Amino acid sequence: MIDIQNVSSVFDTPDGQLTAVDDVSLHVPEGSIQGIIGFSGAGKSTLLRTMNLLERPRSGRVIIDGTDLLGLDVHQLRTARHGIGMVFQHFNLLNNLTVQKNVELSLKFAGVGRTERRRAAAEALDIVDLADKAGSYPAQLSGGQKQRVGIARALATQPRVLLCDEPTSAVDPRTTASVLQYLSDVNARLGITLVIVTHEMNVIKAIADNVAVMEDGRVVERFDLTALQNPGFVPATPIGRYLITDDIELDRRPRANTVAPADAARYSRV
């Protein structure tokens, strides 16, 4: 379904060129859920945004459902993007539009008629159990409901691929499970291929079939999530081993030069 072949993305900065994605190849089978994880700055969001050419790579090929997006003209790319939905971290809802109108927006830009827009938006809202909020405004919704509106908006064009950029980072832990359940249901019920970028391994463990670990713009390791059920499984890379650990470990021993002597004396008087 998705074939990323030797993709590199390079940005010009005041300090010179920055390679955000460095010769990455990745295959995502149809109907699967692919996780991409890494620390901030690893290049994972940039890689995701190359999959619909929101970020145009410097080199490589981006093939979605057999079509190389880099070979399309502007009109053809706009049409191809109808089959690639995207869920953003910060919802990106327009506060002056109702939930219904927010979901309709991408269809309106695509030139879809009003009657068809309303029908498609209503179906998408029904999938995420928000049909009763169609006339509400974003300010009247919880964070989880806003993200579900974002999912409905992405589903309104009936995509075959859904790209999710940190879809749970802006919601609380309890809401995270709800958002992930809706994404999992979309995958199971509609057969939509999902790609989820996150820095939270618990998100990947809950929903993904496979995880790609990124560091310094490269995919340094991939493994199926079923491997985590094997007590003897150990990721091959240090970053992979770190990311599958749920615990936060601190060195509580006093360290030299961490607090200046004068400051230490001041703290002791508090």
TrEMBL record:
Keywords: Amino-acid transport, ATP-binding, Cell membrane, Membrane, Nucleotide-binding, Translocase, Transport. Signal peptide: none annotated. The keyword Amino-acid biosynthesis does not apply. It comes from Cryobacterium frigoriphilum. Residues 2-241 form the ABC transporter domain. The keyword Translocase applies. GO terms for molecular function: ATP binding; ATP hydrolysis activity. This is ATP-binding cassette domain-containing protein. PROSITE patterns: ABC_TRANSPORTER_1, ABC_TRANSPORTER_2. Pfam families: ABC_tran. It comes from the Bacteria. The lineage of its organism: Bacteria, Bacillati, Actinomycetota, Actinomycetes, Micrococcales. One of its GO terms (biological process) is amino acid transport.
